[in-house]
Amino acid sequence: MMRNLLNALLSRFHRPRTVPTEQLAVAALDMTAQLERDCLDCDHVYRLLDEYQERATRGEDISTEMANVRIHLDVCPDCLEEYEMLERMVNARPAG
What we know:
The protein is an all-alpha fold. The protein has two domains: 38 residues; 57 residues, no CATH class. It is built from five helices and no strands. Helix 1 crosses helix 2, helix 3 packs parallel to helix 5 and helix 4 packs across helix 5. The longest helix has 18 residues. The protein starts with a helix and ends with a helix. The model has no long low-confidence stretch (mean pLDDT 78).
């Protein structure tokens, strides 16, 4: 989970190799505080995955309404794996 959190944090910077340790630490604390305020638990995210996936497939803007789902997926490998499995299943369905 820490590796996913670090990767999510580093992805917010354009040049992750040049981010000073102090700036990275402050950003990590900010992200952690945001997660504590806004984070959904795995059960809640699991209930929302179908809707999240359907909206993403339709090209809807999920960045605001379902931002907390994306945040959770960025830091939770179990839920991300579940979401990726759902995407594979949907993409494997024959069209029509």
